[in-house]
Every structure is written in C-alpha cells, then in structure tokens.
Amino acid sequence: MNFLELVQKRQSTRTYLSRPVDREKIDRCIDAARLAPSACNSQPWSFVIVDDPEKKQELAENAFSGIYSIVSAAKQAAEEGLGTCWIGWFNEKKVKKTLGLPRTAHVDVLITMGYPADPAVREKNRKTLEEIRRYA
User: Fold this and answer.
1) CATH of 3-35+48-116, one of 3.40.109.10, 3.40.50.980, 3.30.240.20, 3.20.20.70
2) CA–CA separation, 24 and 28 (whole Å)
3) What is the pLDDT of residues 22-63, one digit of tens each?
4) Of 134, 128, 6, nearest in space to 72 by CA
5) Greatest C-alpha distance within the chain
6) Cβ proximity of 32 and 113 under 8 Å
7) Contact present, 6 and 118 (Cβ < 8 Å)
8) Can you say whether residue 9 is alpha, beta or left, with left for phi > 0 and alpha for psi between -120 and 50 degrees?
9) Fewer CB atoms near the end CB (10 Å): N or C, the chain?
10) How far is CA 40 from the centre of its chain?
11) What is the rounded average pLDDT of the residues 103-132?
C-alpha cells in the first residue's frame, strides 16, 4: 500500500480491543517518530509509554476529569495494524503528576494506540482540495 492509500484509510480510533500491543511494535512506531525532522535538529520530543493496565486507567481518569471529558497519527502504527488517536485537550497538570514528570515538563499531546475494536474504515467527510487550497 502506498502512502496516499494509507492516508485515505487512516482514521482516529476510540475503541480498542483489550489485547495489549507488543512492545516491539510500539518501539517501531517510536523509532519512526524519532527519525522525523525537527527545527535545527533539536529533536525536542520524549515519549512516555503507559502499558500497565492499572496505570492506563489512572491516567485516563486524571487526564479527562472535569471539563476535559471530551475525548491521527502514525503511518508506522497503521502498517502494524494498530489504531491511534491524537488527543490535544486534557488536564496536563494531572497527567504530569500521574506520570511523575517534573513541573517544568510540557506534555503536548496524548496518543492512544491499540488494536481497533472495529477495523472497518469509515467514510471520510472532508472538504475538497478547492475549499482548502489557495495559492498566493
């Protein structure tokens, strides 16, 4: 499958099977992210993987409590048969506390990853290229 075909099938996954993801697959995804370009080769990222079921539950409860109750992603994960969902709205203070991160740390996003409970590809409802493109 070429990249465009993969992008057309990629979607946010919000319901997963209880089957854990092998750490080797997670490591391949992280390795792909590690190789991405960054400004001045600063490589500002760090990844905390939470795969302990109790810790995942604690993180979910803390990250999405209160006003954060509203709950895309890596090509490598899709190639591994995994679904992902990028979450940008969460209680960062509680996430840092749950993960034991220093106050000075900044958590940009949470990414859920697992085997989709429903692997069917949903129809995409996207704006046309003409609606979003403008040459200047």
Assistant:
1) 3.40.109.10
2) 6
3) 999 999 999 988 998 999 999 988 999 999 999 999 999 999
4) 6
5) 52
6) no
7) no
8) alpha
9) C
10) 24
11) 92
Q: What is the pLDDT of residues 62-77, one digit of tens each?
A: 998 765 444 333 567 8
Residue 81, token pair as written in the block: 């048969």
The token pair that represents 126 in the structure block: 């996207």
SS3 helix, strand, coil % of the chain, rounded to 5?
Answer: 40, 10, 50
Residue 78 three-state SS: helix
Q: Which residue has the tokens 């940009």?
A: 108
Take residue 18 and report the two structure tokens written for it. 């209880």
Q: What is the rounded distance in angstroms from the CA atom of residue 15 to the CA atom of residue 82?
A: 12
